[in-house]
Every structure is written in C-alpha cells, then in structure tokens.
Amino acid sequence: MSDESQSGKKSAVPKQVGSELIIPVAAILFSIYYFWTIQSIPWEAQVSALLVGLVLIGLCLVFIGRTLIQKARGEVALGFSQLLNPAAFIPKRLILLALTLGYILIIPFAGFTITTFGFLAAAMLTLSNGKKMGFIIFLSAILSFGGYLLFIAAFKTRFPMGPVESALKGLF
Amino acid sequence: MEFNLGIFLDEFARTFTFWWVILPALFLGLIVGAIPGFSAANTIIILLPLTLAMDPEVGLIFMIALYASSRLGAGIPAILVNIPGTAGAAATPLDGYPMTKQGRGQQALSISFVSSVLGGLLTTIIALLAMPWLSQVAYYLHSVEMIVIMIFGISLIASIAAKDTLKGLIAGFFGLMIGYIGADVVYETPRGTFGFLELYDKVPLIPALVGLFAISEAFSVLEGESILSKRGKEAMQKAGWAEAWEGVRLALSKWWHIIWTSLIGLVIGVVPGAGAAIAAFVAYQQSKTFSKTPELYGTGHLEGLVAPESANNGVTSGTLVPLLVIGVPGGATAAIMAVVLQYHGVTMGPELFENHAHLAYGAFTAMAVTYAIMLLTILPLARYMSKITVVSTVYMCPIIIAFTLVGSFVPRAYVFDMYLALAFGVIGYIARKTGYHVAAILIGVILGPLLENYFLRALRISQGDVMVIFSSTIGNILWVCLVISLLLPWYMDRRRKADRLETN
Hints:
The structure holds 2 protein chains of 2 kinds.
Chain A: H1 2-8, E1 15-16, H2 22-37, H3 43-72, E2 76-77, H4 81-84, H5 90-127, H6 133-154, H7 163-168
Chain B: H1 5-16, H2 19-34, H3 40-46, H4 48-53, H5 56-81, H6 93-101, H7 105-134, H8 137-140, H9 143-160, H10 165-179, E1 182-183, E2 190-191, H11 205-221, H12 230-238, H13 241-253, H14 255-270, H15 275-289, H16 302-318, H17 320-326, H18 332-343, H19 350-355, H20 357-375, H21 378-385, H22 393-409, H23 416-434, H24 438-461, H25 473-503
Antiparallel strand pairs in B: 1-2
C-alpha cells in the first residue's frame, strides 16, 4: 500500500529506502556473530555455514553499495517512512505489540483461557477505538472459552494451563 | 510384490465401507491442517491412545484420512489470510492470497481444492501401480545427491523474488543462516544460539512459520478495514455458488498442469526427508519456468496456485511408498504410522506384501477413497469458508495473533517458542514493509539444517574433500539439470522478448 503511494510521488520526493537496509545490516551482524561462535569447532562443522555466510555478507554489501550509489545520485533518501507509514497507525501497532508481549508474559501463569480473553478484549477495544464494547467482550469470552473446549477439553492439546483450566479439569 | 488388480479393486470397494472412520478423520484433518502448529503428525500423536486401541486396519485408515485431509486444510488459511497451516502450504499464498485480496477467495479455494484432490487422487493411484519402481528412488539418493536437491530448493528463492532478485537472495540466505542456528550434528557444539538452550535443537519450524506469516501479516493488515480491497470486498459480498463453480472449471482447465506438478510432488515425497515444502516450491518454480505468462506469477495467477497445491498433495502418497516397501518413513507422519503398526506387530517392508497385503494396498486405497470423498466437500467449503475474509481487521488481527502464538507453543510446550514467534513476526513485518519476501526467508530456515546435515555427511565420507559434491554420476546429472533449470528461465525470457519485438 505504501509502495504504491510512494511510487506516485517518485518524481517529486525521492523514495525513502533507509528501512530496506535493516535486514542486510542485521544479516551481516548475525553472520559475524555466527562466525565468532564457530571459530573453535572443527573445520568440517564450519565449512557449510562459512560458505553461506560469506555469500550472504557479499550480497548484503552489494545491496548496501547499490543503495548508497542511488543516494549519491539523489534518486533515493535514507528515511524510514516505508516502514512506519501510515503514521496514524504507529500508536495502535505499538499498543498491539505491547499487548502481545504481555500475552506471552502472562500466559504461563494465568493459562490459556483467561489470558486469551484479556488479550482479545484489550486488543479489539484498542483497534476499534473503544466502540462496540459489549459485543467485543462477548466475542472474546466466546472465543477464549470455545478455544478451551476445542483444544484443551476435546483435543487434549498441550496449551498453557492456569486456574480456569485446573478448575474445569474435573468437568472435562 | 507383484501388482494384483483383483486385490486392488476388492480393497477399493471394501475401503468405502469404512466411511464412518474416514468422515470424522477427514473433518478433523481439515481443522488441524488449517491451524498452524496442529500438524497431522501432532494430532496423530495426541490421538495415539485411540489409534492404538483400534484394529490395525481401522487405525491405518483413520490416520491416512487425517493425513490426506490435513494437507488440503493447510491451504485454506494460506489462501484466505496469508497464513499457511503447515510449511507444506508455504508456497500456496504466493498466488492464492492475491486472488483473495481481489475478492476471488471462493474461486481460489475451489481451485486449490480441485488441484489438491485430483493431484492427491492421481498420485495415489500412480504410487499404487508404480510402488516397486518408485521405492528404488530412495536407494539411489545419498548425501551428495541430496545436496544438489537442496540447492535446487535454494534456487527457488530467485524465482519467488521476481521483483528484486538481490533482495530475494538476501532474504533466502539470511533464512539459511538462521536455519544453521543450533548444535551441529557431529560435534554437538552450539552455534549462533545467543546462549538460549531452547535453540540447541535448531530453530523450530512452527514458530518461524507463525511469526513470518501470521504475526507479521496481522500487524501489516491492521491499517485496512479488512484484508480485501474495496472492490474485492464488493466482489466477495456478491459472490455465490457460480464463483465456486468457476473455480472448479478453471482448475479443471489446467488438468495437464495438475498432472505434472503432482508427479513432482510424488517423486519428491518418495525421498525421505525432502517434504511437502520443497515439493511445493519446486513445482511452483517449474510451473513458472515453463509458463507462457511468468510475469503474472505472484499476482493471483491460476497456475501459480494449482502447482503448489497439486505438488504438496502428491507428496502425501509419496511419503508412504518408502515406508511400506522398504520400511523407511518418508516423513514425520509416516514415521508415526509405522510406530502404530509396529505396535500391532505389523512389520514394514517386503514382508508386509506377503503377510498383510490388504494393509499394504489398503493404505493407498484408503487415501484414494479419502480424496474421492473430499471431492464432495469442495463446493460447500469454498462457498462458506471464503466469507471469513470480509471479517473486519479489528477482530481478525487479535484472533490471528492469539491463536497462532499459542499454536507455536504446542509442538514443544516451551513459552520460549512464543517469544521466538514474536521475534520472527518482527523480522517478517520489516521484511514485508521493505520488499523482502517472507517465503524466501522460510525456505532458507527449512533448508538450512537439511543442507548442512547432508554437506557434513558428504565431507565425513570424503574425509574433508569438498569436491565430493561432484563425485556421483546421478549427482552430476542433477547438477546439469540444476544449471539448465537456472538458465532456462533466462533463455525463455529472452526468447519471449525477442518474439514480442518481432510481432511489434
């Protein structure tokens, strides 16, 4: 979506490609770290990763070089709008990311049913700007309890267990 | 082990009488296939108390029906919400999801189902007839030949990243390096693990799949009201039975494509360890290479959806061949089936055809009957399941995040795997936003450990001589095929351009 809008403005404003360098830079750093971890192991166990890692570093350097040449010619800029646009959604994305992190932190203690209910309700209310609160709470309850019935009670799946799962264990 | 038509027909008719086992297994397979983390293998493990208690024949039919239908189920979320249910369906969204975004979700599902069912049915029958010869394939493929097959897989990255090959190669090789994380198989030395014990056993595939496809997609699509464009939403709301039928018609018009791509799946399925993901991507690449319209791949192209779906269902029957004929399972699900049958005292290999012929042939007839019954489910499934795409992202994104994250917990029961899925989600989000293909990263993660294992084995055998990779006749033939398959798209592209210039 952002690509299309970017290309429309191509002639007036140079395309911001700074964010396209994140993956190549991360790949180079990871490869160097990986090489550091294999320096003391036998050659046979190094060779495959060395070949792949060196090719990866080479490819990344070519890409970074290409981007810098384009920048020198004034064809592109090194901004991060490609990653962050549309800016209006940045707060919602960050809140959703925080909620997701919270979901993973809490689920080992509170179990699947309660944590999923809380996460679904909070995330849906955030994304809907607080509208349809009653419906969202009802839907979150149905989905989390339905998930419990299907995955834990029926399929006996290894989901994180908590007070609800322990309390209902005798029933199902 | 001679083929006996009488036994085959008798088995086929008899297997239909087990419809009461096949139907519930079929629907269970569709559900578990569609949920990332709930593969057929995991489900069969969970249901071991049930399958072990069954008569061996009933148990085998149940497992096979579940296995075959889960393959079809994995394509449903891949097409509708860009989240493959299993790695085998990772090539399906390349063209399936763009079709959905255009409001052609129903059509895409019908095409996928027809390709899967016909591809699966055809390869099951071929596997049954050609079992003695197909089983020999596994004998001829050693570490050197497998290295070439893996590099075949890596070459697919370039075909996926058609817009910017350099970015595609970076994504793919980055994935390979991630796939190399973990303790090496010979010396058990941890490499690139950041000190996490949970990564000693390599990067688990399900969290990678969940993060790269599901989490990153949920964070990407939340800026729209739904995953569909405005025009796509209108088209989807108007869609009726006619669209589902149109999908069936379109898929049937590509019957030849279904045949040859499903055969790719069958042959790759016979090779132990190769798997559905490689088959689907190889079929996609070959389909694009020989297509008259390769530029349409990735935009919602019919052939780009038919190829991976036919191929990954071709793998299903292929994995059973080495299991039944030589006792070597072709994949995880086949290995679990072997355990169940061994529990009942059934020995795999040539003896199986002497002592339990009805079980040996019955495995394939059960698969054929399952696919035949699945034919009846195509239209209703396509008609009603596609409606999920009109659900608002307000509800869709949190549901995807919660249920797929917890799905990444299931295989190993490590909370760490949920964090890992989130980390892959961040990588996937950056990749999507900046034009790096997440499927290329996933191919790398899948192939990395396989390539390394075969490379290490080849080096051990040759006492460290790297030239061992050119030491086998079959391997060298495969190298030539690889070079041809890499040069052919370039040559055909040039020829097409020359033809266009001439016509202009």
